Amino acid sequence: MCRTIAEIREYRAQFQKDNQSVGLVPTMGFLHAAHLSLVELAQKRADRSVVSIFVNPSQFNQRADLESYPRDEARDLALLQEAGVDLVFCPTVEEMYPNGFQSWVQVEEISLPWEGAGRPGHFRGVATVCTMLFQIVQPDIAVFGEKDFQQLRLIEQMVADLKIPTTIVRGPLIREEDGLAMSSRNVRLSRSGREKALHISRTLHRLRDDLLQETTDRKRLLQDARSELERLPDVAVDYLSIVQENDLSEADGTYTDEPERVIATVVVDGVRLLDNVSLKRKALVG
Ligand code: AMP
């Protein structure tokens, strides 16, 4: 495990000498099976796998959220060792943001709606830390999960705009057996909170099936799904919308052939939970 940029650069130089490609998985730690699925993808697609664990303060707009973010470095390192990861980067905040730090990366339109609207400055923090990680690790590929779909699209946009020589690989959204999207934040749910949280994926999947029927007005289906969730105590829907996958703009009420996705953020007992489902039709077999 490395805490400094200098150490990572040394390993990176050696990988380069040995002609080995590098795959990076950026995380904030408190790892679960979804993180490990991204690691597996990186291992398949590159010779060497690097995982970063860094709870990035600049992407938190609430101090309490940053402070209560779950952490367990020893457990994370054991899981990554078991998974056969080549290198883990766990920098300190001072290593990433030394005194006098003042350069920020701002991806514009795509960072404004949804998570961006609810969490001012969040995506500026994400774009900046990912740019730094790309500069430090210089990965050939980097894997991001579809669970944070807006973040994934923002990184893809940034890498294209800034000509960063890294290929972004998408990892599918991984769910618990009962359907809840895996998240490090799920441990903050009480038993009853978790019961309520299950309604998110159920509602989204039902909504997707209804939307794919193309018989009922889309706005009405969205409104019904939102009401269904908000009927639960201490559940607030931040957004529940159909978006164009490409630019995250809200899809209008008409049915189209463009790739679209239903995205949602629902706050359950104060815990912010993200989920989304693709509106792509499954390929017909036979
Ligand atoms: P985090 O540690 O939450 O910042 O997440 C690190 C990476 O794991 C990001 O690319 C996330 O999108 C991805 N990730 C987190 N949860 C899931 C999930 N349930 N399915 C797929 N990817 C995920």
Protein model, in words:
With 286 residues, the chain is an alpha/beta fold. Helix content is 40%, strand content 18%. It has helices spanning 5-17, 33-45, 63-67, 73-82, 93-96, 115-118, 122-137, 149-161, 191-213, 218-230; strands at residues 22-27, 48-53, 87-89, 141-145, 167-171, 235-244, 260-268, 271-278. Strands 3-2-1-4-5 form a five-stranded parallel sheet, sandwiched between helices. 33% of the residues are buried. The mean pLDDT is 96. Adenosine monophosphate binds at residues 27-28, 34-35, 38, 144-148, 171, 173-174, 181-184.
The number of strands is 8
Bound molecules: adenosine monophosphate
Output the strand order for the largest sheet: 3-2-1-4-5
Uncertain ranges: none
Distance between the termini: 49 Å
User: Which of globular, elongated, flat, extended, rod-shaped describes the shape?
Assistant: globular
Radius of gyration: 19 Å
Q: What is the percent of helical residues?
A: 25-40%
The biggest sheet, with number of strands, parallel, antiparallel or mixed sense and barrel status, is: 5 strands, parallel
Structural class: alpha/beta
Strand content: 15-25%
Mean pLDDT: 96
- If helices are DSSP runs of H or I spanning 4 or more residues, what is the number of helices? 10
Q: How are helices and strands ordered from N to C?
A: HEHEHHEHHHEHEHHEEE
